[in-house]
Amino acid sequence: MSSEIFVTRSSMPPFEEYCEEIKDIWESRWLTNRGKKHQELTEKLEKKLGVDHVQLTVNGHYALELVFQAMGLTGEVITTPFTFVSTTHALVRSGLTPVFADIDPDNYTMDPEKIEALITPKTSAIVPVHVYGNVCDVKAIEDIAKKHGLKVIYDAAHAFNETYDGKSVATYGDASIFSFHATKVFNTIEGGAVCCDDAELSDKMDRMKDFGIRDEECVDCIGGNGKMNEFAAAMGLCNLRHLDEEIGKRKRVYDRYMERLDGVKGLKLVKTDPLVQYNYAYFPVVFEDSFGMGRDQVFDRLNKEGIHARKYFYPCTNALDCYKDRYDPNDTPVALDISKRVMTLPFYASLELKDVDRICDVILEVGKN
Ligand SMILES: *Cc1c(COP(=O)(O)O)cnc(C)c1O
Question: In whole angstroms, what is the distance from residue 255 CA to residue 3 CA?
Fold first, then answer.
């Protein structure tokens, strides 16, 4: 049997480059607590993402909890169930009540038409997700938020480096969070960030990620420990140098998948938006009835061939065991349906085109029978 193909494979710089980057840490012995690497990465990302403030964190999940808490959100928050569990957990763990809006059937982001009916006097914010790197309808969401006086925080974990209508995705809404987890387009091993243009909010988050410490004798807010360490920041500095090259390689893989799968009966691929410059983070495929085989059957068949895809995002978060009896996934029928039909195919910069062909051959073969 040919070698196994996993759904993702982390981007890493050349070994020597990383060693060179971390050398001075041995001299400074400054391992964490906003050291030189942390500072340098912060500045580079502020420039790259076109925002006034970047707060680096220990991971993307912490970034979500940090911004919700620093903003002082209360009551209900309108969000999407079609996301990684982190988005929903972060709301619940921050004492908020997620209220789920259904998604757009073509790009799987929050459907703005579904938002207004869910707004109550208790609603304080909207938390949409640029899922798979598909940018939300940011203009429509902004209009609704303005009209009702709500904050907008984007979970942009999948959208690093993307632009919408010529502007960095990080510039939309009141704040955006990113994940720099090992499996994301840009990684710091584990890591994340909150981006915003509000100096006061950024300053508060800076303290909150360090136990709320203002100075030696003054602790004026209740925070946790969410700082990014110097080795993680150093990995980020290295990976940032190779980002364009990595995204270029991802585009090659994307183009090959499109060449092989676009237009095949029963396979629904993401409808791309000409206003978005993509980072090619994921390749989701939705299996419609007319394909003749269900998602789970194709998934099992790929597995048998040593090809490990993912049922991302299944179950949708309002159907998770831990939320049983609390939320009803039937309230968001589109998300529920897509979650049962979708699969993300192996996708990473170093995936070879012959492996893409092997994956497509199996899918097309299954569809034929
Ligand atoms: C990865 C991810 C997160 C969490 O980020 P971590 O860095 O893994 O903590 C949050 N939201 C979404 C949509 C993600 O994909």
Answer: 23
